[in-house]
Amino acid sequence: MGLLRWIGGVIVFFWVVGFLLHIGGGLIHMLLVLAVIVFLVDKISGKR
User: At the top level of its lineage, which domain of life is listed (predicted)?
Assistant: First the structure.
């Protein structure tokens, strides 16, 4: 699941950059939600 963590980290990075530069609007927040979902899937499947 290292790939999912990496993808989640990239999404969070782009969210922070978009938030600081005020670009992207709703798309940036959708990426944050996607990153949270990836993180939760990683945590749930990592415990098995």
Answer: Bacteria
Q: How many domains does the chain have?
A: 1
Cβ–Cβ < 8 Å for 1, 46: yes
Closest CA to 35 of 2, 5, 1, 3: 5
- C-alpha angle 46-12-34 in degrees, rounded to nearest 5: 65
The pTM of this model reads 0.51
Amino acid code (one letter) for 22: H
Q: Name the residue with higher pLDDT: 28 or 17.
A: 17
